[in-house]
Please model this.
Amino acid sequence: MSSFAIIVVSLLTCVGQLCQKQAVENWRHRALGWQEKLFDRWLLSGLTALGLGMLLWLVILQYVPLNIAYPMLSLNFVLVTLASHFWFKEKTGWRGWCGIACIMLGVILVGAHL
Model:
C-alpha cells in the first residue's frame, strides 16, 4: 500500500509540474494580466494536483519512515523527464538518460525496504 501511495504522489507531482509548464507556455507571447494568469485552467489544475499530492504525502509520512519515503520521490525526476520529452518535445541527452537510470536503480534499492 505505501509503495502504491508513493507512486500516486509522484504521479500527482508530475502532473502538477506539467500543468504549470503548460500554463506558462500558454502565457508566452500573450499580454495577460495577473488575474488571467492566476485563473489559468492549467495553473489551477497544476496547483490542485500538487495540493492533493501533498495531502497524500502527509498520510504516507504517518506510516513510512522519511528516510525511506523521501528518496522514493526521486521517481518524480524520471516521470517529469519522460513526460516533458514526449509532451513538450524537450530533448534529453545521454547524460540525462544515464542519470535517469541511476535514479531508477536507487528507487528500486530503497523501495526494496517497503
About this structure: The chain has one domain: 2-111.
